[in-house]
Amino acid sequence: MKENVTDRRRLPRYSSKLQVKEINGSPVMGAYLLDIGPLGARLKTALPFNATDLVELIVLPTDKEKEIRLLGEVVWLDFSMAAQGYYILGISFLQPCWNPLFSDQQ
Q: Which of 13, 14, 56, 89 is the most exposed place for a label (fewest CB within 10 A)?
């Protein structure tokens, strides 16, 4: 029986569509975290990256006033939507993110 990604994860991810305001210090438009958990996230962006690239994300939570800074490494890439102008990236956080950003979405 094939193991799915959810079964492999040590901690759950929560669906979201959190706006990413900056990537690596540069403002971006149309970038979103599609899901997030304490150990990582799935990012939709028009910017191409390579596996092992380090990324700094500034996220603007919808109901919070303060921006959140997340540091991580690209661990996988999905280029299947490149023709539509965006990529899906798997991000592994360098430090666990125990932020209330997603805990209230349970």
A: 56
CA–CA distance, 20 with 24 (Å, rounded to integer) = 11
Cα–Cα distance for residue pair 104/1, rounded to 1 Å: 33
Distance CA 19, CA 5 (A): 24
Domain boundary assignment for the chain: 5-103
Cα–Cα distance measured from residue 3 to residue 77, given in angstroms and rounded to the nearest whole number = 19
Thinking of the domain 5-103, which architecture would CATH place it in?
Beta Barrel (2.40)
pLDDT in tens, 63-85: 667 888 999 999 999 988 878 88
